[in-house]
Amino acid sequence: MKIIFSRKGFDSGYGGVPSPVFPNGQLMSLPIPGGQAPHRFDELTTPVGPMGPLVQQLTGRPAFPRAAVHLDPDLDAGSVARQPGWRGSLGQAGAAQSHLASQGVGPGDLFLFFGWFREVEQTNDAWNYRRGAPGQHVLFGYLQIGQVLTVGAQPDTAGILAERPWLHDHPHLDGERSVNNTIYLAADELILPSGPTGRPGAGAFDQLTADQVLTAPGQSKSRWRLPGWCGPVPGERSELTYHGDPARWAHQDDGSVWLTSVAKGQEFVMDLPPVAGAEAWLRTITHGALRGAVPAPAGLVEPKAAVAPRRRRLG
Asked: Strands, E, within 81-181: which ranges?
């Protein structure tokens, strides 16, 4: 099984501000603006009401509520009206998709989505960032791949929707994209190497927990604290793509590793090592309360999600 740390949501280049963590601990990843996308920010629902006023207040941009939104990854069934059969999905194209393909990412592999978050508070009936609250990289959801759809630059939309009409508003079926334009569909159930978990195949975390925070205490958001098994043997290259340089890693006395993550890039891939604690960490990360997830069917076993490790290329 591969795990993919996948950077998504608002950042300094798209949106310009962090996604919010609300006073009750709920978090909401703000999807990036998207040119020809079929939805607008005003159409999306959040734990505190419509997303349009929220992004307007946090960005200070009055036009944002009417802007098109690239709802991707799409993990929350309650964010917009859905057709029967809906399930979580992720679209990818261009260089990022080429990287996923070169690493052999496919059914059974697990995306762990992270983004830039900061605590907010409500003052004078408007949402603002809490003074002194740091920006952090936080895991906000996951998706285990059940199926990969290669839809291409000019998708056969009619053919795809004949079988999956619930994909009608997916942004990667709207407009022209690169020839490797791809949609990853979630598995029915999250299945780890030791077996089924009873958890949905994809979901957005409803509440922030300490386990979901990647940023090391007191550090800038891109300085991460990870379990020791994520790091390389001292002096050797890391297995995590784009992070091979040993100088990016620092082993800590408590058994963790600190990583200076790259400033750009979307998909960072590594094989889940067969070591004590690795799967337990994934179970802890994915065990939190989910918002708008499709429950795993009772008694389902989906063998394709438990696949043998594949050779990978270092990035």
From this structure: 89-92, 110-123, 126-129, 136-150
The answer to whether the pTM exceeds 0.70 is yes
Closest CA to 89 of 139, 144, 38: 144
Contacts of residue 71, Cβ cutoff 8 Å, sequence gap at least 6: 31, 34, 37, 39, 44, 79, 80, 169, 171
| Length reported for the chain | 315
Check if the beta carbon of residue 121 is closer than 8 Å to that of residue 127.
yes
Structural domains in the chain (count) = 1
Q: How many Å apart are CA 41 and CA 156, to the nearest integer?
A: 27
- Whether 194 maps to a domain, the answer reads yes
Other beta carbons within 10 angstroms of residue 6's beta carbon come to: 24
**Which secondary structure element, helix H or strand E, spans residue 62, and what is its range?**
none
Q: What is the pLDDT of residues 233-252, one digit of tens each?
A: 888 999 999 999 999 999 99
Q: Which domain holds residue 185?
A: 2-207+269-294
